[in-house]
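Dear all,

This email documents one entry for the complex benchmark we are building for the journal club exercise. For each entry we list the sequence lines for every component of the assembly. Then comes the predicted three-dimensional structure of the complex as a token string, followed by one or two observations. Please use this as the template for your own entries, and keep the labels exactly as they appear.
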Amino acid sequence: MLKLNLFISLLIFGSLIAVNDAARGSRRGKMTEAPSTTPKVESSEENSSEEETFKILVTHPEVPQEALDLMSRGCKLIMCESLPPNRTEILQKAKGVHGMFWGSHIPLDKEVLDVAGPQLKSISTMSAGIDYVDVEELKKRKIPLGHTPIVLSDAVADLAMGLMLSAARRFHEGRTKIDSSTWENYHIEWMWGQDVRDSTVGFFGFGSIGQAIAKRLKGFDIERVLYTTRRPIDKKLEKQFNAQKVEFHELLGQSDFLFIAAPLTPETEGIFNSTAFPKMKKTAVLINIARGPIVNQDDLYTALKTNQIFSAGIDVMNPEPLPANDKLLTLPNIVITPHIGSATKRTRTDMATIAAHNVLRGLVGEPMLSPAY
Ligand SMILES: *[C@@H]1O[C@H](CO)[C@@H](O)[C@H](O)[C@H]1NC(C)=O
Ligand SMILES: *[C@@H]1O[C@H](CO)[C@@H](O)[C@H](O)[C@H]1NC(C)=O
Ligand SMILES: *[C@@H]1O[C@H](CO)[C@@H](O)[C@H](O)[C@H]1NC(C)=O
């Protein structure tokens, strides 16, 4: 056991530098390269018995190879094969594993932990949000949980900018005008949208993703940034973004563009509802790249339909996948993407690699790269 611990520590140390960069959101770290100083498990002359090899359950068959390579050097991987990921299969394969690479958004709850057994000692998700994890239950059992925030902030912020501009300038509606041959640009007021310049931009949640969006907005000559968070952010950051913490009702009342960039919690669930929308400007554009249930979707429909707000751009909704006959899709003034915020090769690979390091570190009792608690 000791020897194995040492081996894994070496393995982790060898590739930590690049991963630390990415975990911190540094642009220098390129994550797709395999660690170079890694010892090879094949060179081991001893047979390791079952007890000496950590078993890691990988709950998704398409986890990027870089992450699988990292974990399989020192551990035995138990792969789930179903697509979409299937809870029954996960439960069948969870028994006796030491680590879990939780590659889907299937609820990670008491039942899963019970089935796995008391030897389970390390879990990481491959996501920033962990609303599908029973964190309290993990804490109770002292099982460390990792997740992968920060590394996806740039990709999500890029998408948020796209949604903001396409909702403000009516990309979706414009396309339908072409499709229906109702292109009427002889009207001077045709298809007028909202300016970004000189606008007040609000952030519901101003963590790593919100700040990455604010950074991009610096090129758009906005007037100021307002935000709400559970905790005030660093004064230096406030200065850097010309940002001011306000109450929720002020955020609603003053924002020309309002980004939802907060985690889903009991406090945030449904907070954008029929009480909130009438407080917003009629010209406001709402962007949600966080979690669907933060918005009451029926109330959003009504707000858009009755022009309580100008438009919305959303990457997340409730439920996902959104049924093709959902009434939201009938509206001209909403732009919808299918939860693709982090869906780029580099970002997903980085997320997987960090999650793999989280699991490995948890197994040897070292602090995770990005612990969730
Ligand atoms: C390794 O295990 C195999 C099969 O269990 C056995 O035949 C072999 O002798 C073992 N080798 C060593 C070095 O223990
Ligand atoms: C899930 O996996 C189990 C066991 O592997 C299988 O019996 C079941 O049909 C699968 N369910 C779905 C919906 O694919
Ligand atoms: C909207 O959400 C807020 C905050 O959760 C709540 O106080 C309010 O009662 C809700 N409004 C409606 C109409 O449900």
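Observations: Residues 13-18, 24-44 have pLDDT under 50 and may be disordered. The two ends are 27 Å apart (CA to CA).
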